[in-house]
Amino acid sequence: MLQNVASSLGMTYKCPVQELEFSLDCRRICQTCGKGSRKREDFTNLSLDLCAETTTDKLLENYLKPTQLEYNCTCKGQVSTMSAMFSTLPNILVLHLKRYRYTRDYRLEKVHDGTSIDKDLVLSQKTLRLVSVWSGSSLTSEIMQSLDITSLKAEVRTMT
Ligand SMILES: [Zn+2]
To answer: Matching CDD domains, A to Z (predicted)?
Structure first.
């Protein structure tokens, strides 16, 4: 419907969610035989575990770093390594910082650790330049309307 309205006005409509879409290349490698598999997964945001005083790029690196998991390989190996890297980047990267975690006795506790949000979000392969950052526990429709979406664009450039 929005496409039709836009086209009747001589304009084109682009769904705003497309600005948020990106893909991760997820790889599993067997620790015994070295063989593995790859899968491309699509996202519109990432939920990052919050840890002691750190920066957003460290939280993101932590999310993407290789982790071990149990996996029954055809070679009878049972441990594989999983890792992920960006295969495409969004125009706007939404990072959700998980402010709550479970204690050992399964109670929820709020994490009060601070996080620095650097202007440049540097990953091993690419740099995302954050032009503006919005953070908060909830967005009301009034706040949503006052947000200038153009100011939230991230500039993507390749590191040299
Ligand atoms: Zn194997």
So the answer is: Peptidase_C19
Whole-number Cα distances in Å, 131 to 14, 41, 91, 151? 21, 26, 11, 7
Best CATH choice for the domain 21-158 from the list 3.10.20.30, 3.30.43.10, 3.90.70.10, 1.10.3980.10: 3.90.70.10
Residue 67 Cα to ligand 1 middle (Å)? 16
Q: Could you tell me the distance, in angstroms and rounded to a whole number, from the CA of residue 36 to the centre of ligand 1?
A: 7
Give the C-alpha distances (Å, rounded to integers) separating 38 from 25, 45, 88, 136: 7, 20, 15, 35
Tell me, in angstroms, the distance from the centre of ligand 1 to residue 81's CA.
11
Per-residue pLDDT reduced to its tens digit, 74-113: 999 999 999 988 888 888 888 888 888 888 999 998 888 7
